[in-house]
Amino acid sequence: MNNPDESWDFFLRESSNYTSNDQINIYCNNIYVFVYLNIILIPIVIKMI
């Protein structure tokens, strides 16, 4: 998996090249990825506590 910061930088760079409608689609996709990562990371964090 890519470094999250790198992915975010890529997302920000790419999103600036799209029209507003495409930005909305990218934003929704980013939320999906964020939720997916939380599903994976939250149990790991809980185990570490």
Commentary on this structure:
The protein is built from two helices and no strands. The chain has helices at residues 4-15, 20-48. The chain starts with a helix and ends with a helix. The protein has one domain (4-48). It is an all-alpha fold and 49 residues long. The model has no long low-confidence stretch (mean pLDDT 74). Helix content is 84%, strand content 0%.
Question: Any key phrases for this structure?
Answer:
49 residues, mainly alpha, 2 helices, membrane, transmembrane helix, transmembrane
**Ends distance:** 24 Å
* Total domain units: 1
User: Main β-sheet, in a few words?
Assistant: none
Q: How much helical structure, as a percent, in the residues?
A: over 70%
* Rg, nearest Å: 13 Å
What is the general shape? elongated
Assembly of the depicted chains: single chain
Give the helix/strand class: mainly alpha
Beta-strand content bin: under 5%
SSE succession: HH
Record field, number of beta strands:
0
- Poorly predicted residue ranges: none
Number of helices: 2
Mean pLDDT score: 74
Keywords: Membrane, Transmembrane, Transmembrane helix
